[in-house]
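INFO batch 0412 | record 1 of 1 | parsing
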Amino acid sequence: MKELNKEQQEQQEQTKKRKKWVLLLLLLLLLAGVGYSLYHVFGQKPKENVTVISGDFLPKGKDAKKMSEQEIEKFAQKKVDDSKFNMMIGATAKIDSQTQEGTLNIKNPQTNAYPVNVVITDDKTGDVLYTSGAIEPGEEVSHVQLEKTLAKGTHPATARFSLYDAKTKAKKGEVAAGVGFIVE
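INFO prediction complete | emitting tokens
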């Protein structure tokens, strides 16, 4: 009987060991499953949609032709002509001391590509004496009304020509010239 009990005890112990091993194996599988799930839920970056564009190839020429040397020169000359600017303003203006009106020739030649605005300032005080407003190519100003009263005498001034793009109205540049106002 003791032997039977001993055999039964050994079998029970082996059964307990097997149960422990099975339980340990199940626990490891459970931990591996939880770890794998957590990795996929929290560890991966979100997938980004990628647009695949099939490759296009340059088609063969159809209507294009090579530009001649004359056409290239004409195109280049037009670019140079568009960048030129000639300012024309009289060196002196005669102004009536009573009315503060007088003659001053300001021209924007037809050959210019840009409209201009002319602002004339007193060299001594910096005050604006005259503003022309827009002068388109081919237009001129010959009669001026001063915006600031000047005393009799000669007053040196500076005329600033601001050039503007005809389409966008954006300022393209500025040039200046000296002018003398003779108030009589």
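INFO post-check: The chain has a mean pLDDT of 83.
INFO record closed
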